[in-house]
Design brief:
mainly alpha; 3 strands; elongated; DNA polymerase, domain 1; hpI Integrase, Chain A
Length: 284
């Protein structure tokens, strides 16, 4: 959760603009806030405005806009270098922060008119490491599904449906937890989800997905459901909409039981699996 009191006013204004005008999702706003908090802490350190040696404890809500007006492209490059050498950030992390900084300074210069020049105008994105996406094989995927439907699992119908959707449809975690029953068109074998950037998209469901969802709905609690969660497809044992953390725990537990490396695979990697298996076997 964002604590706006920790931010200077111009940062909060940028976040408000990103929500209302750019229509960014809550997760994107959290990322923006985190990235710019890191950047502003560095600026305070870089400009000699603090004696705090612990980077995590540097306060930045007192950085005036006149300091931001002094920032140059070289200062931003120094920040990217600091991320790589001192904070050991991955190239993908540095690339995300560069993207955030670009949007931030574009807002300050062209929208809010708080600075005259945009120092990030010619800022380049760090070159990303070439990595082969990790994904489960068809046999590994079957193992995961077998574990999810294990008789010892008291939530086997729910967990099997969750795992089936991940493996067949390449859904994002946020998309899955936010599915409402009314989003599913059973006659047309499809559902609508809210994806990245609050964009609505349609996912077509194969027989495996439809059967898994139907089997879960047959045992889904009918009473005692939290009022705010009454429309949610997937419920926790507390009869509330299932959380991101619970789904991550479920998948991690299944991976362990299936004998798969939890350092190598995760919920996100199941998206790669869905895309890869779709390409290899031409069915999803």
């Amino acid at each position: 959760m964002i604590n706006r009191e920790d931010n200077p006013d111009y940062l909060n204004s940028f976040l408000d603009y990103s929500i209302t005008i750019l229509n960014k999702s809550p997760n994107s706003i959290k990322e923006y806030n985190y990235d710019l908090a890191t950047f502003l802490k560095f600026i305070k350190l870089h400009f000699g405005l603090t004696n705090e040696l612990d980077f995590s404890k540097i306060k930045f809500n007192d950085i005036p806009i006149k300091i931001i007006q002094k920032i140059t492209l070289d200062d931003i490059h120094a920040f990217i270098s600091y991320l790589a050498t001192e904070l050991r950030s991955k190239s993908s992390t540095r690339a995300r922060k560069v993207s955030t900084i670009r949007v931030f300074f574009k807002y300050l210069s062209s929208k809010a008119k708080l600075i005259d020049n945009n120092p990030a105008q010619n800022l380049e994105t760090p070159k990303l490491d070439k990595r082969t996406p990790k994904y489960l094989t068809l046999e590994d995927s079957k193992k995961l599904l077998d574990v999810a439907s294990d008789e010892d699992n008291r939530n086997k119908q729910r967990d099997y449906a969750i795992t089936t959707l991940f493996l067949n449809c390449g859904m994002r975690l946020s998309e899955l937890v936010n599915i409402n029953i009314k989003d599913i068109k059973f006659d047309d074998c499809k559902m609508t989800v809210i994806g990245k950037g609050n964009k609505e998209r349609t996912i077509y469901l194969n027989n495996s997905c439809m059967k898994a969802i139907s089997n879960y709905l047959n045992v889904r609690p009918k009473e005692g459901i939290n009022y705010k969660s009454k429309d949610a497809l997937f419920l926790s044992e507390r009869r509330e909409r299932i959380s991101n953390r619970t789904v991550q725990y479920i998948i991690k537990r299944e991976l362990k039981k299936a004998g798969l490396d939890t350092n190598k695979y995760s919920v996100h990697k199941l998206r790669h699996t869905a895309a890869t298996l779709m390409y290899q076997y031409r069915k999803c």
